[in-house]
Amino acid sequence: MNASVTRQLLGKLGGLLLTLFLSSIVIFSAVLLTPGDPVVALAGGVRPTPEMIEAITVQHHLDQPVWVQYLYWIGGVLTGDLGSSFVYKTPVVELIGPRFGVTLLLVLYTLVLIVVFGIGSGILAATRGRATDRAVLVATSFGVALPTFVVAILLIWVFGRVLGWFPVYGAGEGILDNLYHLTLPAISLSVLYIAYLSRITRGAVVGQLHSEHVDTARVRGIPRGRIFRRHVFLNASPQILAISGATVAGLFAASAIAEQAFGIGGLGSLLTEAAARKDLPVVQVISLLLVILFVVLNAAADVAIALIDPDSVKPRRTA
Description:
The chain has a domain at about 100-280: MetI-like fold, CATH 1.10.3720.10. It is an all-alpha fold and about 325 residues long. About 75% of the residues lie in helices and about 0% in strands. The chain is flat and about 80 Å long. Helix 1 runs antiparallel to helix 12 and helix 8 packs across helix 10. It has 12 helices and no strands. It starts with a helix and ends in an 11-residue tail after the last helix.
């Protein structure tokens, strides 16, 4: 990796840290921006007693300037002290830990479906003729148009109620049972992203198939399989990776819809419940975690793109 690429990646790292810093300020400010007394908000929406008011004031340093309160909060986050839930009366880390594992498994399962069927159908559409291209186009048009909750309802009705092939509630116990229970949620969550990634892959592959370097490789008599691997897909992969990175990051937030539909006790459903019950300490930590995941995964995609195609991160000279 040359010096120019290194500088570009360091710049992206600086942008990542700045984004996380600004996001933490916005998330922390949610308590202050909540209508009404922040003490009431931090108490979980219940009417606080004088003892509760005193305890909350001391715990959250509400008698200190705002910037001091932020430093206490972010310092606690950085040292692993995520605070306690006012609704569940337990440390936030104990609420998030088990649920994060369920959401992570759901996201990974969904990602496998997206990569296999999204990239696979996009390649088929670009390389297997007009009929296949039109079929994939029609299928992806439906996929893009169907919201996740609609797909979830259809899957529950067809494969859960009518056919009875899959369970429609809970996450199961044990890895195999987890995968069995998460099959329908993963499918419902993946449909939109499969359709989107399929179109991106098709466009990127078609663009490379009509490029000059591919025509030159054909003239030189290089086998078709090698041309596709080394000259078509490799050059199309940066664009595909960029979309895939954003997709994975977005799945953590989008998983809340599937978790609610199928009664899965994951991170997304916990965020929804905490927001509805005004359990702001939980909302703050989960929101910050989702921002961290989004930024880090996008940065990881940028690094992967730079390793595959260093020219993609070089600054372009203007005439």
